[in-house]
Amino acid sequence: MYKTDLSVQISTLQMKNPVMPASGAYDYFEDNADVFPMCTLGAIMLKSVHRYPRPGNKPPRIAEVTGGMLNSIGIPSIGIEEFLNKGMLEHYKTLNVPVVISISGGSPVDYVEICKMLEGNPFIDAIELNLSCPNVGTGLQLASDEVLLGRTVQSVRTVTSFPLIAKLSPNVTDIRKTAKISEECGADAVTVANTYMGMKIDIQTKKPVLGNIMGGLSGPAIKPITLHMVYQAYSVLNIPIIACGGIMCASDAIEYILAGATAVQVGAGNFVNPMLMKEVIEGIDDYLAKNGCQSLSDIRGIANCRKN
Ligand SMILES: Cc1cc2nc3c(=O)[nH]c(=O)nc-3n(C[C@H](O)[C@H](O)[C@H](O)COP(=O)(O)O)c2cc1C
């Protein structure tokens, strides 16, 4: 099907290519189902599920800004119990692609409880810990607090045998520290990264546009910054990195792989171009073939002089 070998492996999670949607920024059964061939994806990533039901934040929850968008959705969730009882995972498994569930919480205990409930579930292939939502509660992000981050990853590791992906916050001084803590505490991979805290003010009303005042910035504006974080994280890690931030075309994804990423996630770009992930997969394949490469490992990290 491909001209080259695009397969990647993250612990026991086997993907036929390195491309998956970013959590919360993609809908599998409504908006995109009729236009996008889901079976082409390397994996599907679900919207974060919380331990308990949550309404999400006050509207407006979305604002367009130059080079991207702000969201302050705040993870509305039916809670993990209802999510499991409703058979949501069985539903996703019908897409015949590995399923990564994203979970979020307010404290390490929340994550542990959810993972205990998921242990042995035949409908998931990996767990991503959303440790970095800027829109939940007080805005405290577990992945910005090194102690809490370590405690969360370590305690979850003791209760789950699924591949564990720690989704990190870019709102930190040095991503190398939080990435390394995640690795040392048992994560099988890290996702670099979530959104950047930002805001927009309406100069007519003289008030913040978002109901939550602040939100998370995503889209093309963040790509150079997240690319640098992937580059930095790769220099200290021995586990795979999933790059996430501002991918709008195949070249963006290729830059991330050259910096050291094993896989990539596409978020806001899907809103602009519903076929983007297919184009990214094909574009990576073309690039490898044109450059005489046989597999992703031929290019992974080769732009990274800190590692080589
Ligand atoms: C509308 C929206 C909802 C999101 N919801 C979640 C979420 O539930 N869990 C999560 O980990 N990240 C969430 N994110 C963050 C994305 O997964 C991703 O990390 C971020 O948007 C950066 O990637 P991008 O620039 O490709 O959009 C959300 C982003 C958007 C735009």
UniProtKB/TrEMBL annotation:
The keyword Transmembrane does not apply. Binds 1 FMN per subunit. Keywords: Cytoplasm, Flavoprotein, FMN, Oxidoreductase, Pyrimidine biosynthesis. Residues 6-288 form the Dihydroorotate dehydrogenase catalytic domain. GO terms for biological process: 'de novo' pyrimidine nucleobase biosynthetic process; 'de novo' UMP biosynthetic process. Its main location: cytoplasm. FMN binds at S23, K47, S48, N130, K167, G219, G245, G246. It comes from the Bacteria. InterPro entries: Aldolase_TIM, DHO_dehydrogenase, DHOD_1B, Dihydroorotate_DH_1, Dihydroorotate_DH_1_2, Dihydroorotate_DH_cat, Dihydroorotate_DH_I. NCBIfam families: PRK07259.1 (NF005574), pyrD_sub1_fam (TIGR01037). Catalyzes the conversion of dihydroorotate to orotate. Belongs to the dihydroorotate dehydrogenase family. Type 1 subfamily. This is Dihydroorotate dehydrogenase. It comes from Flexilinea flocculi. The lineage of its organism: Bacteria, Bacillati, Chloroflexota, Anaerolineae, Anaerolineales.
